[in-house]
C-alpha cells in the first residue's frame, strides 16, 4: 500500500457546529471532530454568538484531531483552510480582543438602519454597487446599528472580522478578509473588488479603516504561530489560506464538476448552487459569482434561511408525541419522522408550510416574512403536519431553482450534502418537486470541511485541479429518482405556494411595522 505523504486540514465554523477533518491526498478522511455552537438571543429577532467560544471550540477540535492523527501525520499537513457562516459583525479592539458578541446573519434588529441606507443611496444604486438585494442579513445595516446604538464600543473598534477570519487571526496573528465573504457582506463594490466608499459615506464609516483588504480565497495569509501551535497541537509554520464562506466550501463539497449539476448543502440553512455560462444581471433576486470549476465560469449562489431549522423547530415545539413514540420504538426522532411523513399523501391534501421562521433570504429577501401553515383542518393528521415541513422546505427550494433558471441557470441533477442528505424521504420529495434525480453523497464525503481541504489542496499542489480533488474525495451513496405521482401533485400545488405568499407580502410587511409600533 502506498504511503500517504500529504495531508490537509479543513475546518468549517457552521451556524450550529464547528467541524474539522484531516484529509489524505487519497481523498480519505483520517480523523474528524466537532463541537456545537451556541446561540445567544438578547432580544426579539436578535441572534448572537460568542467569538471566544468559537476559538475555544476550535482549540478543542484541533487538539482532538492532532492527538488522534499523531505526530507523523500532523507534520505532513501541507495547508489549512477555514470556512464559516457569513455574514457576521465581530468588532475587535486594538489588542485583537472581541468588544462584544458577534451579531450573526440571522439577526434582524437593524431593519431601520437598512431602510436609512437604502434611502440615502437609492435602491437601484444600492443593487448596482453590490450586485444583490438589500437585506438585514448583511453587514451595512449591522454596522450602522452598532455605530448608532453602541457608540463607545464602535469608537474602540480596530477591525471587524468574520468567524473564519477570527480563527485565522488566532492561528496566525494576521487580520484578514477573503474576497468571497467580502463579496457577500454588501460592503464591497462588485466592479472594483474593494470596499465601497459610497456605502461607507452612507453609513458615515470609513470602511477601509475597520475592514481588512479582501484577499483571494486561496492566498496564504500567514503561518501557524508558535503560540497557536502550543495551544492547538498543530505544527508551527503550517500555511493558512484566507478561506471562504461555508457557501463556497459547500459548493466544492457537493462534488459539482460540470454545467447542469446543481448542488445543495442542506443543513440548518440550505445553500443552493447552479452553474451558468454567463453572469447574471445585478438586479435579479439571485445573482451569479465567479466560479473556479472548469467549464462553469459563473455560479448562482442562493441561501434559504430555515430549511433544517424548520425541522428542528417542529421537533422542539410540536413533536412531543412523536418523540415519545420514537423512544418507545427505539428509533432516532429524525428516522421516525421520515417514516411518519410517508404515511401522508403527496401535497398533504392542500396543507402548506412556509419555512420563513427567520424571514427569508433567496429569492424574496425580506425579514418580515413569517413561518405559516395554510390549509389546516379538523382532520389534519400528525403525518400530514410532519410531511408538510419536508414539503414546505422543498417548495422553497423549487422557488429558488425556478428563479435561477429564469435568470439563465442550468440544472438537470441535484447533488445534496450535509445533514439533509441523511433523509431519504426529504430527498425523494426534493427529486419529485424539482423533477430531477437527487444524488445523495456518502456520509464520509461531502462534508463542508472536505470542500475546504479541496481548496487548500489545490493551492499547495496536493491536487492538480478541483476535478481531481472531487474524484478522490467525493463519493455518491445513492441516486434518488422522482416519484411520478408526487411530481403531478407538486406541479399542481406549486403555483399556490408562490401566490399565497405574494398575496400576503404587503400585509406581512404592514404587520411587522404595526408590531414594532
Q: Could you characterize what this model shows?
A:
The protein is an alpha+beta fold and 517 residues long. The chain has two domains: 7-247, Nucleotidyltransferase, domain 5; 256-445 and 475-510, ATPase, nucleotide binding domain (Nucleotidyltransferase, domain 5, 2-Layer Sandwich). The longest helix has 33 residues, at 484-516. The protein is 42% helix and 20% strand.
Strand order, largest beta sheet: 18-19-17-16-22-23-24
What is the CATH C-level name of the largest domain?
Answer: Alpha Beta
Helix content: 40-55%
Total number of helices: 20
**Total beta strand runs:** 24
Mean pLDDT: 95
Main sheet attributes: strand count, strand direction, barrel closure: 7 strands, mixed
CATH superfamily of the largest domain: ATPase, nucleotide binding domain
Structural class: alpha+beta
- How is the CATH topology of the largest domain named? Nucleotidyltransferase, domain 5
Supply Rg: 22 Å
What best-fitting shape do the alpha-carbon axes yield?
globular
Spatial separation of the terminal alpha carbons: 70 Å
User: What percent strand?
Assistant: 15-25%
Count of individual domains = 2
CATH architecture of the largest domain: 2-Layer Sandwich
Low-confidence stretches: none
Amino acid at each position: 500500500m502506498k504511503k500517504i505523504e500529504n495531508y490537509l486540514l479543513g475546518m468549517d465554523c457552521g451556524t450550529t457546529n464547528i467541524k474539522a477533518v484531516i484529509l489524505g491526498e487519497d481523498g480519505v478522511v483520517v480523523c474528524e471532530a466537532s463541537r456545537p455552537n451556541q446561540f445567544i438571543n438578547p432580544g426579539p429577532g436578535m441572534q448572537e454568538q460568542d467569538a471566544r467560544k468559537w476559538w475555544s471550540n476550535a482549540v478543542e477540535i484541533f487538539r482532538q484531531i492532532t492527538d488522534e492523527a499523531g505526530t507523523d501525520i500532523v507534520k505532513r499537513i501541507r495547508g489549512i483552510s477555514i470556512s464559516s457562516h457569513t455574514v457576521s459583525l465581530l468588532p475587535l479592539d486594538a489588542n485583537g480582543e472581541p468588544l462584544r458578541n458577534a451579531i450573526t446573519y440571522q439577526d434582524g434588529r437593524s431593519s431601520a438602519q437598512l431602510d436609512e441606507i437604502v434611502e440615502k443611496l437609492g435602491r437601484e444604486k444600492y443593487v448596482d454597487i453590490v450586485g444583490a438585494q438589500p437585506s438585514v442579513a448583511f453587514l451595512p445595516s449591522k454596522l450602522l446599528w452598532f455605530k448608532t446604538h453602541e457608540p463607545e464600543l464602535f469608537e474602540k473598534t480596530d477591525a471587524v472580522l468574520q468567524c473564519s477570519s477570527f480563527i485565522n487571526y488566532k492561528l496566525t496573528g494576521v487580520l484578514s478578509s477573503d474576497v468571497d465573504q467580502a463579496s457577500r457582506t454588501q460592503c464591497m463594490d462588485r466592479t472594483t473588488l474593494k470596499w465601497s466608499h459610497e456605502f461607507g459615506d452612507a453609513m458615515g464609516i470609513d470602511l477601509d479603516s475597520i475592514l481588512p483588504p479582501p484577499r483571494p480565497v486561496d492566498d496564504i495569509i500567514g503561518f501557524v504561530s508558535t503560540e497557536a501551535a502550543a495551544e492547538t497541537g498543530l505544527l508551527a509554520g503550517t500555511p493558512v489560506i484566507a478561506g471562504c464562506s461555508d457557501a463556497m466550501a459547500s459548493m466544492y463539497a457537493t462534488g459539482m464538476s460540470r454545467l447542469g449539476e446543481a448542488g445543495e448543502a442542506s443543513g440548518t440553512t440550505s445553500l443552493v448552487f447552479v452553474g451558468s455560462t454567463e453572469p447574471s444581471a445585478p438586479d435579479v433576486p439571485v445573482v451569479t459569482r465567479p466560479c473556479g470549476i472548469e467549464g462553469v465560469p459563473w455560479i448562482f449562489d442562493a441561501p434559504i434561511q430555515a430549511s433544517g431549522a424548520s425541522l428542528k423547530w417542529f421537533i422542539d415545539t410540536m413533536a412531543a408525541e412523536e418523540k415519545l413514540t420514537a423512544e418507545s420504538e427505539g428509533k432516532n426522532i429524525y428516522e421516525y419522522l421520515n417514516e411518519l411523513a410517508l404515511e401522508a399523501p403527496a401535497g398533504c391534501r392542500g396543507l402548506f408550510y412556509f419555512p420563513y421562521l427567520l424571514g427569508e433570504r433567496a429569492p424574496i429577501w425580506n425579514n418580515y416574512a413569517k413561518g405559516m401553515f395554510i390549509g389546516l383542518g379538523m382532520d389534519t393528521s400528525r403525518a400530514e403536519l410532519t410531511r408538510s415541513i419536508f414539503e414546505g422546505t422543498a417548495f422553497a427550494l423549487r422557488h429558488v431553482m425556478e428563479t435561477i433558471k429564469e435568470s439563465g441557470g442550468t440544472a438537470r441533477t441535484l447533488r445534496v450534502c450535509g445533514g439533509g442528505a441523511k433523509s431519504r424521504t426529504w430527498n425523494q420529495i426534493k427529486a419529485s418537486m424539482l423533477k430531477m434525480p437527487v444524488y445523495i453523497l456518502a456520509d464520509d464525503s461531502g462534508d463542508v470541511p472536505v470542500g475546504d481541504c479541496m481548496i487548500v489542496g489545490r493551492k499547495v499542489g496536493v491536487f492538480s485541479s478541483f476535478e481531481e480533488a472531487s474524484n478522490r474525495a467525493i463519493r455518491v451513496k445513492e441516486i434518488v429518482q422522482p416519484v411520478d405521482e408526487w411530481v403531478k401533485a407538486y406541479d399542481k400545488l406549486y403555483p399556490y405556494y408562490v401566490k399565497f405568499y405574494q398575496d400576503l407580502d404587503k400585509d406581512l410587511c404592514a404587520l411587522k411595522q404595526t408590531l414594532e409600533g
